[in-house]
Amino acid sequence: MLLSLHQTRVTFLPLLLLFWRSSDGMPDPAQRELLIHQEESRLTGGQVTLREEAEKKLDAHLHHLKEKEISAPQFLPSMHFFKAKPFIQKSPVFKLLQKMPKGAALHIHSSALVSVEWLVKNVTYRPHCHICFTWDNNVRFLFSDSQPFPRWDCFYWQLLETLRSRLEDPTEFDNSLMKHLSVFTEDPDHEYPNQDAVWEKFEKSFIAAAGLITHAPVLRDYYYRGLEELHQDNIMYLELRSGVSKTYEMDGTIHDRVWTLKTFQEVTKKFTADHPDFLGARMIISAHRALGVNEVKDVVKEAVELHKTFPDVVAGFDMVGREDSGRTLWFYRDALSLPEELGSTLPFYFHAGETDNEGTDVDQNILDALLFNTKRIGHGFALAHHPLAKELSRRKDVPVELCPISNQVLKLVSDLRNHPAAVLMSEGHPLVISSDDPSLFGTTGLSYDFYQAFVGIGGLKANLGTLKELALNSIKYSSLPAQLKEKGRLLWQSKWETFVAEQS
Ligand SMILES: *[C@@H]1O[C@H](CO)[C@@H](O)[C@H](O)[C@H]1NC(C)=O
Ligand SMILES: [Zn+2]
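The line above is the sequence of adenosine deaminase; the predicted structure tokens follow.
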């Protein structure tokens, strides 16, 4: 039996259709109203009843603000985010969303967690930071207390402090560094004519940031700062995809992955102690789709061990990197069946269906993710084109992690009104909103992505109930154990009530 919830709704239809037309051929207005209501009730949040007067008032206010944005000459979710960003920042809907308690961020990658502004203005100003420009005009950073020897396509390392002291305009130089560390540009259409071009820049930015982030003392501050940026955006919990890189000290000492996990655990503990209204953070260990099967087997085995040793930190496992140019989940099937063979309960949180190449092997990732019992689907951009996978996802209550800005910047969709998740949202498919790679896209927190989902993808019909359900979903579909979910829900509820009260 599929979708029992919907079946009960669907059984009303034939009855209604009997009354479809009155004798004069005019549809019955009362029946028409009823059908409209029934359709609306299927929307994400369509079953949420707004209880208090204050909630109803806020809902009406939001609707009014949205109407204004939709009738404005420039509809922001239809523009490229890089151009729309300054206008979104001025939007009253956006400002409300910033204040709203949004629950959890469930799909963010560790190398893109913290704003590039902080990386450049704080991290690259620390002593002993060296820079090198590669032949193809990329940058590498390295902390070293002596002159670094050539590595990573780099022959000529300069101490940043010395370099900056010779520059006329260090601010301009810093801005150029920020461009190296993100895909942000004023002219995205020209600079990124196709998906290949933007992915190339995307991967270069990751490599550029690596030398900064994998410096052990920086990583500690980086995690803390990352949680701070989320907390400031009224987010209370994080699940971070991470390759759990090794880290290095100034003298060349290398720390292993266990050190990285422990550091993440310690920083999270410190942050929650400093911010009692923050619930915590966990990691989804990820391997890159460029690896061979045996390499992935090793990562999976290690993840199984780490999941056993750090059950409160390690949430699960994922495969990351561009799906279209990487290997498929099915290619890795021997590696991905290892946890069960080893008697482990390591859950999967697979990226799947981040593609518009329908019918390719990559396009099957979405079904395979479900067959491997993924707990959530990262992106699931292709899900609307897979009716069976969509049914399975709904029946198994496996939500899609919708990252609207990522999909637009990486050129799967340009006008967000045309995002396939508009279908999922209008039929109440399980969904959470996330930001994927905030630093690379020039966002922080989730408010920008909530804005695009709420105004662009959801349209005028998405309402306060939609926002409520999306926020609650992020706790419900997190990897947290039941009692922590309940704690999170209660914490969120009290924040929500304060938020609603403050708006009236
Ligand atoms: C850089 O960040 C660290 C840790 O977050 C902070 O203690 C320090 O004051 C910052 N330095 C500057 C120059 O902003
Ligand atoms: Zn991702």
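Note on the example: The mean pLDDT is 93. The domain at 81-114+219-503 is CATH 3.20.20.140 (TIM Barrel).
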